[in-house]
Every structure is written in C-alpha cells, then in structure tokens.
Amino acid sequence: MQSMKEKRAIVMPVGDFLEYKIRSGKMDNGIGQKIWQFTLKHPEFAKQIMDILDMELSDADTLARVERLA
Fold this sequence. Notes:
Blueprint: H1 4-23, H2 29-41, H3 46-53, H4 59-67
C-alpha cells in the first residue's frame, strides 16, 4: 500500500495539468473536478490520465475516456 506522500507525488502532475487546462479555458471546471476526484480514487491510472489529457479532446470525451479506465 502506498503512503500518502507517495500517492501525492503520483497524482500531483495530474492536478497541475488540470489546473493549467482550467485556468487557460481549455477545460470546464466541473469536468476537471470529476477527473481530479477519479485520479484521487485511482492513482494507479495517473500516467494514463495524463496521456488522455494531452490528447486535446472535448471535455465530454476526455471525461469518458478517463472513467473507462476503471
């Protein structure tokens, strides 16, 4: 089992990228929050989530792909 410090190190790049996308107007805040909550529940998918966020898909498509990981 991962410690909180290890988990935080894994998920923080996703949080930083989501924050950038929301502040730059490239993603809706509500969608970003849903993706962040998913990331916190499933930190093992952080790398795949980063890859999905990098695809520049619509918000709905991005969220759908992230949720399909579980």
